[in-house]
Predict the structure.
Amino acid sequence: MARHGGSSCRQGTRRRPTFEGNARDSHCGGQGQGPVDGLGPGQKSHLVSSSWRPRADGDHRRTAAPGRGILIGHEFMGEIAEVGSEVTHRSVGERVVVPSFISCGACWYCHHDLPSLCDTSNPNAALQQPILGYPTGGIYGYTHPFGGYQGSHAELVRVPFGDVNCFPVPENVTDEQALFLSDAVPTGLMGAEFCDISPGDTVAVWGSGGVGLMAGHAAHLLGAERVIMIDRRPERLALAHKQFGAETIDYTAVDSVLDTLRDRTGGRGPDACVDAVGMEGHGTGVQHLYDRTKQALRLHTDRATALREAILACRKGGTVAVLGIYGVTDKFPMGVLTNKGLTIRTSQQQGQRYVPRMLDYVQQGDLDPSYLITHDMPLDEAVHGYEIFKHKRDGCIRAVFRP
């Protein structure tokens, strides 16, 4: 990682789980970072236990993709193999989970519990500023504008600002339970909190991948009376019903998701809607064909199917939480938001805020995220893991890679 302050350590190669990856290399070189060997005084250890592609359940290669020389993977946990000289609270041999976004712990945003917006952790912030206005923090295994950090599909992962970004895993929490606290679990909890759930509320969630399932499960934990999951994969919908009693809609089996939700909510609509799909959402009908055609012709980059549907389906005065990842959205129904008085809330995940709380949920037996794991394989089979995930083969939701 770039040696720009904070402490770092390196996590070792004990065979702990690492999440879905496409990496063919086991080194950590690349733009924006030095090689794995030789930690700076402010750098933390490397952990490899789970990593995940962008949160949208889409084709990673057709949308935002890591730049040349970047090793992918950003959802992981593992054992600390080495610590930098400025690391004071973490030690070699500790089992830790690491949020996907990197926090310095000292800037204004980190002090306000917005670590993904860190002002310090992105060494390539100048590349983002023309696009976003103000740059975000860095993230593992993504693109150069997000810091160019090497990802977790490797035997070692360098973690900067180690005291801030490595969270110890209690002995009674397994690797598999801790793994998704790196990204999917805190993202889901954040989305559920965005919904401001009150007793009796109905929450509808588009997408039953890892993040969608965690958002639905968190909504249930936060007191939603009904959680309705919307997807086209029967095995995922069945899992949501089994794990937290969700109602389900297979959107390929109904004429209209909007009409179905209207019927199930007495004509009012869900109190809150969560988009856990993002830019690669699938749909049906003329609007879906329109989206696909424009994307194929490169006239826009996103298919906002789930987001548009969530906005239209939400009751008047309700809340739409956007967890799916978007680039440049075409045909965004701003007028619907205004006329219906909707609140829209969105963010990249703020893992450092949520990991301790989610560890409590796991320890108390309220949540066991390991049910997301459908495939377990060695890291050198990562390419195969990505292929089965991309094509949703064999019921794949999450594949764990072990280095």
